[in-house]
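Table S2 (text version). Query chain:
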Amino acid sequence: MYAITIPEPGGPEALVWTEVPDPVLSEGEVLVEVVSSAVNRADLLQRQGFYTPPPGSSPYPGLECAGRIAEVGPGVAGWSVGDEVCALLVGGGYAEKVAVPAGQLMPVPKGVDLAKASALPEVTCTVWSNVFMIAHLRPGETFLVHGGSSGIGTMAIQLAKSVGAKVAVTAGTKEKLDFCAELGADILINYREQDFVEGIKAATDGAGADVILDNMGAKYLNRNVDALAVNGRLAIIGMQGGVKGELNIGTLLGKRGAITATTLRARPLAEKAAVVAAVREHVWPLIEGGHVRPIVDQELPMSDAAQGHRVLEESGHIGKVLLTR
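Corresponding structure-token output:
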């Protein structure tokens, strides 16, 4: 098969489409013939040599895919050759074929194009696990998501609105904020022109956000705590703004706040399967009912994954960037 490899870490040009051995199935896995994958910021880190795949996993980038089952391995029940699926991966999505633990498979939701289904696994599993399973966002609460026009952000807006939350977003352009508003965002904050702490407090009569989903990490740490409401929950899922920051514990104590930080890739198989099962139960009906949809900025040939990485690095996109075969 062909796959995107990284012979040496570096810029987008380090990604090379070349022939590699086919995956070998282990107990409990299926082989998926990949139709599309999606570009995630973790892929950019892996390309740069900063996010090494877990031992025993595929060395190729790609944390999600959509395609058709080509082979069912030993110990797998409930799936058949030819089934159209999308999947949460530990790696290997930038390839013609990938081995997937059966617990990380999901059927393509009714009404969603197979290629566009690769825009769903990472964002739905990330948002649902952090915002709902961990931070327990409830109806009537105020939810703030940074980078509202990103793949994560566009899904977070829709899911938070579906449970009756008030949604605030940050983004860097009017175009991006307008799109967030179309998805249902109530509070629009241009972080280039306005301090988001002041913005969220002004919009909530000084109360702040009950739940914040943060992709920035260190750069926003103390300001996120300042923006929290009493009993607020801060869920950190990224480090775009650095990995080390100082925390005013006194402020956090005064708000009886909580901070969590998670990734999906390194979690045990059972944990990932539990997240996938929860997404199938709670999110798939919303997609099939037309209340939530994948947001796709553009589709590029998988062999030109380098251009997909450039698009993400330039940060002009809205929603997901897909790689198709």
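Notes on Table S2: The longest strand covers residues 29-38. The two ends are 12 Å apart (CA to CA).
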